[in-house]
């Protein structure tokens, strides 16, 4: 298919993303493993772009990981989600923005269920009222946080301090974009570009100067699989799926990976370390792994934020190769310091995975 | 009508998850679990569609239904717009609510999931809570995670979290009144009852296997018989 044809198809898969006034809910996994990404997201929206984005202190998990681990019934999860919508309604917002892809898929599923089964919606309203006394409206718009950064990608590009360009060669960095499965595989119309041509991350990469890498297993799952990772006995499933992706992408020599799901960057980062330690195999240049980023981290790098403010020091796969290629300024001596400069020691050095 | 068929027809996910499957096998072709495990979602759809109570009960007592990763890649590709991954969710709910899950090695793992993710949700308001994660249980999280665990508060402070703090922010302490609301939702909508059933059935199975609670938990969390792959050892 010619590129022009693909662009026409993408145009059919655009979703309406609100410009401002968001009610923000956080991600369990992102808060644990990439906390600075959510900090960066709010910094970009509030300080760079002057947007109104509100976080309610009473919001909780959506319970999605419990739901997809099958210990939480659908009825419970729908009511937990309804409570989040009630907090949004009480705060006077209509645009719901979530940090998590599992949540995003779940919200999409629940909103569709309520459309097709209005009696279920009425029961959820009764259950929520009985449990909490709260009432709710469904959101006017549902956006994943990556949708919002996608919408603002050109404004971010206009403020860029760095581009996704190799400063040594002048060529665009070659970027693998990995979309979380629950972003659009279940409900294609809810994601930018649908399930066939998801463009939410590709749009960011192109706007910020990079080049998207196409490869056979581009849409394969990262391997999380909920219970397949959460239970130690099952983790072979998880690492095997990640390995399949890396074996598929490696011949295309990507410089970096950008992700929009909280779990995917964790698995793509950590399983590279495990594969290196178990088999001595690495997928990046010069014996390093391929650095893996959240889209907030990439946006922050483009905007010139300090890599250690972005939390890049808590990646296991070394990020410095890409910082050097982009020409990002960083102080290696500050990598593992605390907030007030206190010495927190240094992580142990892996046997095979190369680190700085 | 049998009790399993009654159970299944009352789950709204069945209505959109399985309508006139044509057994094309596209779901199996795209399925990450089918590549790793001895697993074929096409066959599962066929058994459920057959409405054969005995075959479905056998399925609910087996490892098979626990192999899916719920990535839902099958949903995109099904030419009938069915959702085999959603069908699995219904079968797993049935296996637990009807008391069959402890008959299989993979099904018994539900106790581990209930006592980790399930419990953390009601106790902390998060599916994952970092003070409950140990490097010992998660060596794959890397030496960077070991370092983070040793300096958990300082690392989160450096990265801008409000870890266990009042007010908004990353990993803030969820107010007790919100946790109380979650608990009441769990009580009214079935999660508390499912938790009770998982514990009760698991305790019975542990007695049958001659294991203490601690030994049983360790076994279900860590043990892999090696009989699940496409090429069983």
What would you note in describing this structure?
The complex is a heterodimer of chains A (356) and B (233). Chain A has 356 residues and is an alpha/beta fold. Chain A has 16 helices and 8 strands. In chain A, strands 2-1-3-4 form a 4-stranded parallel beta sheet, with helices on both faces. In chain A, strands 6-5-7-8 form a 4-stranded parallel beta sheet, sandwiched between helices. In chain A, helix 8 runs parallel beside helix 11 (200-207). The radius of gyration of chain A is 20 Å and the shape is globular. The N and C termini of chain A lie far apart (43 Å). With 233 residues, chain B is mostly helical. Chain B has 2 domains: 3-99, Orthogonal Bundle (Fumarate Reductase Iron-sulfur Protein, Chain B, domain 2); 108-222, no CATH class. In chain B, 59% of the residues lie in helices and 0% in strands. The mean pLDDT of chain B is 95.
Outline of the structure:
The complex is a heterodimer of chains A (356) and B (233). With 356 residues, chain A is of the alpha/beta class.
Q: Please give the CATH class of the largest domain in chain A.
A: Alpha Beta
Q: How many DSSP helices of chain A? A: 16
Oligomer: heterodimer
Give average pLDDT of chain B, whole number: 95
Secondary-structure element pattern of chain B, one letter each: HHHHHHHHHHHHHHH
Principal-axes shape call of chain A = globular
CATH architecture of the largest domain in chain A: 3-Layer(aba) Sandwich
The share of residues in extended strands of chain A comes to: 5-15%
Number of helices of chain B: 15
Low-confidence stretches of chain A: none
Fraction of residues in β-strands of chain B: under 5%
